[in-house]
Here is the input.
Amino acid sequence: MIQTDVFSYQQGSSPVIVSFPHDGVLLPSEIKDDFNALGQQVPDTDWFVNQLYNFLPELDISFFIPEFSRYVVDLNRSSQGGSLYPGQYETSVCPVATFDNERIYREGREPDAKEVQRRIATYWQPYHDHIESEIARIKALHGYAILWDAHSIRGVVPQLFDGVLPDLNFGTAAGASCAPDILKRVTDIAYAQNRYSVVENARFKGGFITRNYGQPDENVHTIQLEINQSIYMIESAAELDVAKCEQLRPLLEQFFSKLVQS
Here is the structure.
């Protein structure tokens, strides 16, 4: 594993790349005190999601994991702003509230426009530069690349969706970011099991990473998987449930084994 100032990565040689944009938990020391007590708990983290994918080195898959929380800068939002889901509640590239619309900064300590740009340059840009270079490297090796954007979220978030989120939520920007046959290799496996519920391009269709880098006509395919955290962790305690994790991980490994073979 190679460590940079803002993310770590492992380089593989398979056609698949995995990004964990919301896995970071740290707040930089120079801005940590700007966050209130809730913000410092970073509750909207994609908790332990990279641990679900601990098989990636065995499959020679490249992956990268940020050090810092999405509250510092959200790597899955455009640096230029704009909405992913018009008309629905969503957080920005430098969030000022949780998914439950609760403040995460102390009064008057929210980042101004200059600070937002500093964070984009310091934390956001290096991560995306690495995505671009890795896609180019893998495409040069294989003629194509598949970027998998790995996420998880609480199963109940009323501000974001009604009811309980399905277990496995695949997103390909409503089909625009990935060739149908590539996605089908994965979803065929998902639908063949009966432990977890599965949907495609429903509430979560893919964020900025999926939409920005997916160019099937250029042989770059992107898939987002949003996992309901209740199927692998104890949500109320933000703790990993080892038994649930061990049940889910083999299914994820099947997805990637199929993609690597393609």
User: Anything to note?
Assistant: The mean pLDDT is 95. The beta strands are 2-3, 7-10, 16-19, 62-66, 145-153, 168-171, 198-200, 220-228, 233-234, 239-240. Residues 113-142 form the longest helix (30 residues).
